[in-house]
Amino acid sequence: MSHRSASLQQQQQQQQQQQPARRPRKPVEGPAEAQPQIEHQGLHAVCFSFAVPLPQFGERPWPKVPGKMASTPAYLLMLWPLVLLLLSDLAASIEFPEGYNRTTLPQPPEFSEQPEKELVVFPTDEVTVRCQASGNPPVEFHWTKDGKEFNPNEVPGMTQRKGSGTIVITTNNGNVATKFKGVYRCYATNSLGTAMSYESRIIAESAPQWPKEKVAPITVEEGTHTILPCNPPISAVPPKIYWLNSRIEHIVQDERVTIGQDGNLYFANVQMTDSRPDYICNAHFQGPRVIIQKEPIELKVTTTNTLSHKKPMRIMPEKRQTTYVAKLGESLVLECIVAGLPTPSVEWVHKNRLNVYPNVVFENAKKTLRILNVTDDDDGEYECIATNDHGKIVLTYTVNVEAAPYWIKKPVSQIYAPGESVRLDCEVEGKPKPEVSWRINGIPLEDVMPEKRRKVQPGALIINEVEPNDTAVIQCEAHNKHGSLLANAYILVLQLPAQILTPGGLEYSVVENQAAVLDCMAFGVPRPTVKWITDDKYVLDDIRSFLFTNGTLLLEQVQRQDAGNFTCIADNDVYEDSITARLIVKGATTFEVGPVNTEKKEGETVTFHCKVLFDETIPEHGIKWRRNGKVIQESDENEKYFINDTSLMITNLDYSDQGIYSCLAWTALDSVEKSAKLVVYGKPGPVSNLELLRQQDHQVKLTWTPGDDHNRDIEEYTVFCEESKFKPGKLEELATIPGNQPWAILPLSPFRNYTFYVQSRNNQGKSELSKASANHVTKPAAPDQNPADVRGEGNETTNMIITWTPFLPWEWNAPSLKYHVQWRQENEDQWNETEVEAPPVVVTGTPVFTPYEIKVQARNEFGKGPEPSIELGYSGEDVPEAIPENLAVEVLNSTTIKLSWILPNREKIFGHLKGFQVYFFWLGTMADRSRRQARAHTHSHGKVLIEGDVSEIILGGFRPWSRYRVQMSVLNGRGEGPHSEAIEFGTPEGVPSRPESLHMEFLSNTTVTLEWTPPRFPNGKLLRYVLAYQQANQTSNQTNMGFVSGITIPATQLMFNVSDLDPYTPYNFYLSAETREGSGEAYVLQEHAIRESVNLSLVNITLGDVRENSTTIFWTTRHNQRDVEFAIHIMSKTDKENWQDVGRVTSSQGSYLIPDLEPGKQYRVRLVKEHRTGDLQVIWESEMSTAGSVHESFRSFAAQGWFVGFVSAIVLLVLVLVLLCFIKRSKGGKYSVKDKEDTQVDSEARPMKDETFGEYRSLESDNEEKPFTSSQPSLNGDIKALGSDDSLADYGGSVDVQFNEDGSFIGQYSGQKGKEGGGNDSSGATSPTNVVTALE
């Protein structure tokens, strides 16, 4: 056994003696089936040397304080290190748990300081070569110089510090610095191994000085280039060069004058001002901290009469193509110093890149390119391009990037247990490829005794099944021509007794259904085996349990019965340790009510509810509300949130309030959280970014960015425009776009100035209007349409007026517009034409009612409108002479007829047939037998306008059992033609109207008398009256209770007594009249209560003594009117007050005291009975005066008020009279000529006297219209009913018309149109409908 191995065993024995006493490993008592499972033992056998601290998880971190539980999912992350171990080929080194005392463990040497790789020593320097390391046992140091061992303390001027490997070199005591130069290396050794430092090269230099030399003046011709040499002394640390003059002023550098990297001063071209005798080169050596200067150089510039310009030429570098080696991570300088006149400018190009600037600094007016930190990307060719007015020169630089060795994976010191396999990685890169060598304790691996367990692989050293004597310091060294790398890493192989670092007696509190984690941080080498026991049972037998590699026990789904003591036992090959912990199980926190997802409208209020059940034995608990993970705080200044024990209320919701709201219920042991999503919806936000893209001259594409839809889909966009040229300030809707399309193609009108706006809409409403788009101006263009409503009509028999609807200015499409009008008679070839700026065009000398073809085209300075269509017009009309013939009446029923006719002489219409005027005359009823009686009624008449070319009409609303006379005339646009011959017809009987009135008188509590008047329209011969009655207020299933019907009364009888009625009961009475055609409408008399309708009658009503303030009324009640309620009213005649109700009594009381009267006043008093009908029955009324006198102040006041009112009335009357006189004088005797003319026209146009009879009225009296005369032509062809506004639609060849009973007209056209509508002149009749117009 080597000395180093023996020392290692001694250190381990010392450590074991220092450990606290542990009881020997014993078999665990208990049933055989309770032993730990083989799977768990195997797991520990594989991972016995792995120590992993338990991870943190969730909001409540893994507690460092013993006894606190982590959240349930935390244990899942603990398995990750175990998975990594199982995937690894070699065992990892020992990781010591937190809190383990490592100060007593053995440790091989480990450097904390190493010597610098290069040191420069000057004669007066004191140089420190550092070497410091630690280890247990303490380390010893020794040095080698140039590969040979030496003792620094034996070298004069060199001292090694005590307890350290650091050497101090002193050269100011006469020692020659050159004797210290060489390559040094420090070694640190203890019984566990030897560490080796970097090699340190010491360079010895003497004090720098300039050799004595005679500097000759330099003479150059103006415009040429020159170089002032510096040539400083050579040093391991290059000096910094400055060029000064004798006054210690810097020589100015610019594009023309430059200091090169070699220290020389370069002139691209010299000028006369450059002549001077004192160019001095100064070299600053930073090592010895001295500045030396060269002898001054004189520069003489001579003038020339033939100063010629020169193209650029190279000065530095000396070759046109130069190769440089750049070291990775260091700096690189490229120089490009050129001469020329004028002074050339310099640019750099990297052929492998678009530009050279990312990691580059330019100096000396771009003549120096400095790469600060060389990377692989800097490799390649660079070009320096120097140009002036006379040419250019290109210098090429090839840069090869190489690198000193650098680490890819560096070996790391580790501690292992016996029997493990060790892998030390040493991966390096460099350019050229570095060579890698291994050493053990500073000895090259090839010089160490071979070992089969040890092998070298590319980038790694592997030792299998290590033993304690394998403890050593391993060195990995790599080098190439640019440098070297060295790393020390020790392998420490040892054994440690089992030890539980977790204190015993801890209590762990957890809530049920969660996972409990009981700590048992066990450590030892080899890894101890850990077992948990409770109630003499192995815990790992429970499928809910899981044991981690560090000894921690996980018990899932903890229940109340799991509470108790748990014992953790850890042992390895020699030692055993144990602790006991207590598990306490509490009730879990649960939600009774939690927040739910909610959608609310902007501005509303929302309330989230949260009701939680806590285990009250856990003292610390509470509720927190969070929004998007952040706690909500209630503040007096903030009225947004209101929080109480079970709810969160958010008021005045805004869109920024939406998010995830959660109720977090927490205790010291657990926490639960329930979340809900709040969505705030409302009207959409405004759209933005309106942009216009021209597609054609009069079409644009408008795009926009949609606004926030505020959680409701956009249904549509509305595009508005403002046209500022013709309609400034007015928005017009231009287009409606689907909500999924944020653009619109808009057709535009010419000659406009548009601005666009967009508004979005969802189901909550419309957004604000967007900001205005940019203005868009459209070019003028030819008209794109022609005028509408082109018509030709004459207002005289010899002309035709051509009219149309003129364009509005914004329809012109240009600044001006004209109309090209053409006309000709139908079937002619030649067009007549004119051009005007506005309608109308009057064509004279035309035949009566002749058809003309008309065209109107819009034109402007940019062109014509489309080819216009031909419209048909007519010259002026004349009064018609055509007369309807063969009038025939077919009586359909008692109120409806069908009237038919023919119009044979159509050529005499002389215009557009507008329709027919029908005149009706009521001749009386069928009972009026004599012609004298019939003629007495001819003043009752009416007329009906029938529009269109029809040949029959159905008329309704006639009186049954009556005689009528009918005539017709033709209407055109000019007027009305002659009347046709009259014909007469009669209507059959019909059902009568209801009785005109029905009254009831009460004879007793059970008997009433009914009186009535006959129907206003009997519509035939009355046969009888029919009476029915029943009790009022019957329910739906009592409708026929007490119903009496079928009481017939002769037609000549107008009253009837009804008896045997129930007292105090309201009744409904129904009375109707009958003819041969049946019963008419019944008159209904409703809800008259028998008792209340009987008038109250009292006997012996008297006033008692009238005192100053009261009196008493006395009366006697009739035997059949007891308990009837009535009221007592009084009125002060003195104060002229209204009646006041002072009390209500019943008839059985017999007396009433009237209180609160005033002395000395006159009163009226009365007894009043109010019936259900609302009528008041005054039973008795009288006057009285109270005793005493009225106060004087009251009389004075009353008199004064009367006087003031009287005077005011007189003054007002005088003012009214004066105003009337003024108006009369101003008006004079003027009258309206228009009224007079209208009166004359009316008298001429009215066909007969305007009279009425019965309930019928004359249409002429309701709405008088003037008939058309020759002086009043119609240009538009419209015509109203003569004497009536009521007209019938132009529906075809026949018309249905009805007359209501009140004289109104009801009609319906049927069949086909006549000439203008195209079709036949006759058709069958249809049923009449109630279209109201006037008759009579």
Automatic annotation (TrEMBL):
<dbReference type="Pfam" id="PF13882">
    <property type="entry name" value="Bravo_FIGEY"/>
</dbReference>
<dbReference type="InterPro" id="IPR036116">
    <property type="entry name" value="FN3_sf"/>
</dbReference>
<keyword id="KW-0472">Membrane</keyword>
<dbReference type="GO" id="GO:0007160">
    <property type="term" value="P:cell-matrix adhesion"/>
</dbReference>
<dbReference type="InterPro" id="IPR003599">
    <property type="entry name" value="Ig_sub"/>
</dbReference>
<comment type="similarity">
    <text>Belongs to the immunoglobulin superfamily. L1/neurofascin/NgCAM family.</text>
</comment>
<dbReference type="InterPro" id="IPR003961">
    <property type="entry name" value="FN3_dom"/>
</dbReference>
<dbReference type="GO" id="GO:0005886">
    <property type="term" value="C:plasma membrane"/>
</dbReference>
<dbReference type="Pfam" id="PF13927">
    <property type="entry name" value="Ig_3"/>
</dbReference>
<feature type="compositionally biased region" description="Polar residues">
    <location>
        <begin position="767"/>
        <end position="776"/>
    </location>
</feature>
<keyword id="KW-0812">Transmembrane</keyword>
<dbReference type="InterPro" id="IPR003598">
    <property type="entry name" value="Ig_sub2"/>
</dbReference>
<feature type="domain" description="Fibronectin type-III">
    <location>
        <begin position="1097"/>
        <end position="1189"/>
    </location>
</feature>
<dbReference type="GO" id="GO:0007411">
    <property type="term" value="P:axon guidance"/>
</dbReference>
<dbReference type="GO" id="GO:0030424">
    <property type="term" value="C:axon"/>
</dbReference>
<feature type="domain" description="Fibronectin type-III">
    <location>
        <begin position="686"/>
        <end position="781"/>
    </location>
</feature>
<dbReference type="InterPro" id="IPR013098">
    <property type="entry name" value="Ig_I-set"/>
</dbReference>
<keyword id="KW-0130">Cell adhesion</keyword>
<dbReference type="InterPro" id="IPR007110">
    <property type="entry name" value="Ig-like_dom"/>
</dbReference>
<comment type="function">
    <text>Neural cell adhesion molecule involved in the dynamics of cell adhesion and in the generation of transmembrane signals at tyrosine kinase receptors. During brain development, critical in multiple processes, including neuronal migration, axonal growth and fasciculation, and synaptogenesis. In the mature brain, plays a role in the dynamics of neuronal structure and function, including synaptic plasticity.</text>
</comment>
<dbReference type="GO" id="GO:0050808">
    <property type="term" value="P:synapse organization"/>
</dbReference>
<dbReference type="InterPro" id="IPR036179">
    <property type="entry name" value="Ig-like_dom_sf"/>
</dbReference>
<dbReference type="GO" id="GO:0098609">
    <property type="term" value="P:cell-cell adhesion"/>
</dbReference>
<dbReference type="GO" id="GO:0098632">
    <property type="term" value="F:cell-cell adhesion mediator activity"/>
</dbReference>
<feature type="compositionally biased region" description="Polar residues">
    <location>
        <begin position="1322"/>
        <end position="1336"/>
    </location>
</feature>
<keyword id="KW-0966">Cell projection</keyword>
<feature type="domain" description="Ig-like">
    <location>
        <begin position="211"/>
        <end position="283"/>
    </location>
</feature>
<feature type="domain" description="Ig-like">
    <location>
        <begin position="497"/>
        <end position="580"/>
    </location>
</feature>
<keyword id="KW-1133">Transmembrane helix</keyword>
<feature type="region of interest" description="Disordered">
    <location>
        <begin position="1"/>
        <end position="36"/>
    </location>
</feature>
<feature type="domain" description="Ig-like">
    <location>
        <begin position="109"/>
        <end position="204"/>
    </location>
</feature>
<feature type="domain" description="Fibronectin type-III">
    <location>
        <begin position="994"/>
        <end position="1093"/>
    </location>
</feature>
<dbReference type="GO" id="GO:0009986">
    <property type="term" value="C:cell surface"/>
</dbReference>
<dbReference type="Pfam" id="PF07679">
    <property type="entry name" value="I-set"/>
</dbReference>
<comment type="subunit">
    <text>Interacts with SHTN1; the interaction occurs in axonal growth cones. Interacts with isoform 2 of BSG.</text>
</comment>
<dbReference type="GO" id="GO:0007420">
    <property type="term" value="P:brain development"/>
</dbReference>
<dbReference type="InterPro" id="IPR013783">
    <property type="entry name" value="Ig-like_fold"/>
</dbReference>
<dbReference type="GO" id="GO:0016477">
    <property type="term" value="P:cell migration"/>
</dbReference>
<keyword id="KW-0732">Signal</keyword>
<feature type="transmembrane region" description="Helical">
    <location>
        <begin position="1202"/>
        <end position="1223"/>
    </location>
</feature>
<dbReference type="GO" id="GO:0030426">
    <property type="term" value="C:growth cone"/>
</dbReference>
<dbReference type="Pfam" id="PF00041">
    <property type="entry name" value="fn3"/>
</dbReference>
